[in-house]
Structures are given as C-alpha cells and as structure tokens.
Fold this protein.
Amino acid sequence: MAESSPQIPTGVPTAARVYDVMLGGKDNYEVDRAVAAGSLAIMPELRDIALHNRAILHRVVRHLAAEEGITQFLDLGSGLPTVRNTHEVAQEVNPAAHVVYVDIDPIVLAHGRAILADNANTTVVTADIRRPDDLLERPEVRALIDFDKPVCVMLVGILHHLADDEKPGQIVQVLRDAMPSGSFFFITNFTRLGDAPESVALERQLLEQLGSGRVRTPAELAAFFDGLEILPPGLVPLPLWRPDEPVLDASTIDVRFMTGGVGRKP
Ligand code: SAM
C-alpha cells in the first residue's frame, strides 16, 4: 500500500489512484479500491480497458515522435507513473524529446519526481486543466515547452473527469488556440454505448462514489475535434487505432467502451 503523507488525502478516493488500482499499481488506498470494486462489479472489463488506454498512448506517442517529428509532449492528467510512461516512449525515439506531465493530484508529483530526478527533459507539474490559461503560463511548463513549435497535447482519459458545466470543450479550445499550426491533440474518453446499459450504470456509480466520470456519446466526443484534421483511422475504439496486432473481435465492451483519436491543428 502507498505510504501516506500530509499532502495526500487518503480518506477520499481520487481518479489517479482508482486508475492505479485498475492497472494493478500499489499507490492506492482502501477508499480507492472500494470505488474500483464498485466499477468492476458493473463492468468487469475495466482492467482490460485501462490496458487498452495505455497501449494506444504508447502507439500514438511513438507515431508522433517517429513519423511526425513531434519533440514536445504536454501530457495533461498524466496519472501516476506506471509501466512505460510518455517520456520513456518519446525519448526512446528521440532522447531529446521534452515531456511535461500535468496532474491535479499531488500524489502524481510526489511519485513522478522520484523517477524523473535525473531526466532534464521531463518534468511534473501539479495544476488544474480547468484553468488552462494558468497552466499554460506556468514557468515549469514554459521551461520545457516552446509554444512556437508544434506540440502534442495529450488529454488521455481526463476529459471524462470534467462535468459538462466545467466546459471541457472550451478548455480544449483554449489549449488549441495556444498551440501553433502542426500541433496534435490526442484524446481518449469513456463512450456511451447504446446497446450496453452498463456504460450508463458506470457513469452513475462513478459520479456517486468518485464525483466524476462522464460517459459521453460519440457525437459529444467528435465535438472535441472540431476544426482539427483527424488522422486516419479517425475517432475509433482504442484498440482499433493503428493496432500493432490485428483485433480479432471488435464487438466486445472492452474494445468499444473507450474511444480515442488524434487531431492535427491545420
Ligand atoms: N492519462 C493517463 C492515462 O490515460 O493512462 C491517466 C488517466 S487517469 C484515468 C485521469 C487523470 O486525470 C488522473 O490522474 C486525475 O488526477 C487527472 N485529472 C482529473 N481532473 C483533472 C484536472 N482538472 N486537472 C488535471 N488533472 C486532472
């Protein structure tokens, strides 16, 4: 179990730590495991879905670093360090790639600092994407991200933690306006499935027990990409985005519950 510290509230669950439970990590507490258990009772596929989310992250970062020449990654809602983080994938392709991790949860900074101590091209910042202007002005962000050069802005598994009245679309717009032409936006999100009532039940459970977890329709997700050129194969179930291995059965919940895609700012 994770050791507690005064900055880490252990009496209320957090999204970063519940996701850590799904990924089989050790940086979580009883309150987080209770939420994860409630979610898994509704949708047992969630552990596989979390792995699909990590796998598309690896494929997209590798693609953008290797094929599109992207050298800067702003990973928003990056979560706790896990197996193969963004900087490891990007810097495997280009050791000079810069990566800034941003998360609202102070546990991410606490654990990130330790693994990044000797990596001058990577940093972790505690900030709230609901205040995107503040985030973009942070000196730690500016030290590694040059906003005159194309950036990959990663919103992977984070926008579903914003309620509609927190205006995630407007947040994406502010970020998009700050990025130069040729920048990329990489988004994944829970998806409402018309034929799977558990996708609605999960939203209810997460809102009740965690306080966030908005399951959006494909049309709502597509709106995040307004004005961007979506890279093939489009906004698709995560395992179908340029898979390394063919996906034999794309009809299952674990394949379809999260949707993701990459858009390029023209
Ligand atoms: N991006 C990682 C991935 O997909 O593997 C982690 C995703 S995890 C499900 C969502 C993360 O978003 C959590 O670490 C949570 O703390 C963070 N988060 C939620 N709301 C946030 C906000 N308003 N600002 C910054 N981070 C936030």
